[in-house]
Amino acid sequence: MNKTVLFYNNSSKIPISLNKEIIGSYTQERVNCIFKLDFELYAKIEKESLFNLKEETRKSITGGEFKPELDYEIEITLNPEFIHQLIEKAKTEEEAIHYLADLSENEPDSDLLYTENWLALSVKQNQNGKEVGYRTFWSYLSIDALANPDANSEKLTEGLTNFMSELVESNLAEALQEFTKETLGDLSSVFKEITAEEETYLFKNLINFFVEDDWTFTKIEGETSLRLGFNGENGRWNCYAMVREEQQQMAFYSIYPSNIPEERRLAISEFITRVNYGMIIGNFEMDFSDGEIRYKTSIDVEGENLTSTIIKNLVYSNVSMMDEYLPGILAVIEKNVSPAEAIAQIEN
């Protein structure tokens, strides 16, 4: 039983063929997958640091050099923060494969398919019975350290020390000690990129709201932003919530599910101009370069608290407007209905 699962990041989709046999470990503490891939796909993963395969976390290759004509084998582990999302839905390895494949088709924005939520442990290649490859820093960490690096700094340091000790000769102990000290900060910050973004005051309030309101979301690496999905009466689309701490601002975006074809962008620009006229909270926007449409609500909270009530009003007024006008956008694009007629059909 083989299932193709599309893993993704912000700009790429990575097709991986999964089957029961490739699940290396499946428990409430750890979920590992081991799969084969060709040179082209490996090169893409390496270039874009997918599955957190970052250069600073990799050991040197041992046993020789990779041969592009042969398959590569990569082992990845799911960030413990997200294991419960899989275990609760799939009790066995086979159920897990079916569930991931189903998510790939029906809920592509799931946290379980986002490459940044998986950590590459090793990359190997079998060359006529000889193993060539390397391990990564993540493979040296215990489950406890992976799950909670801040509370397990000693285990994080121990993992780093073991990782570094295999990079240098034993007679360089003094150099290792200094190198480990200098490098710990770098690798710790890399790890924190995976487990938690910097949670500023406004960002904490934003996260708390979505947790309490029972939304599923993913933190965007390096930003005080969240990616979310929303199911309305007329469709499903992605949303983004962001704060600008220095400017004391919050914004929420609903992204129309697909980009507008170039030949329909003028008609859609008329549609959103007509819709925006008279809007009090929020507005539609379109990027003419790629046809992306989004609905934006925002607020400046300088000198005020970003309360749950404020966030709720911004979020739900936003998604309700996207849900209301989504059929009109679709009518203009696919049925060549005039913008004025499409709006009249909605508002009447």
Summarize the structure.
The protein is of the alpha+beta class and 348 residues long. 37% of the residues lie in helices and 25% in strands.
Descriptors for this entry?
alpha+beta, 2 domains, six-stranded antiparallel sheet, five-stranded antiparallel sheet, globular, 10 helices, 348 residues, Yope Regulator, Chain: A
Class derived from helix and strand content? alpha+beta
What would you call the shape? globular
Q: Can you tell me the CATH class of the largest domain?
A: Alpha Beta
Sketch the major β-sheet.
6 strands, antiparallel
Spatial arrangement of strands, main beta sheet? 8-9-10-11-13-12
Instruction: Kindly report the CATH topology of the largest domain.
Output: Yope Regulator, Chain: A
Q: Please, what is the average pLDDT?
A: 80
| SSE pattern, N- to C-terminal | EEEEHEHHEEHHHHEEEEHEEHH
Q: Helicity range of the residues?
A: 25-40%
* Low-confidence residue ranges: 149-153, 167-176, 194-198
Rg over CA atoms: 24 Å
Number of helices: 10
User: How many strand units?
Assistant: 13
The number of domains is 2
Indicate the CATH architecture of the largest domain: 2-Layer Sandwich
DSSP strand content: 25-35%
Distance between the termini: 51 Å
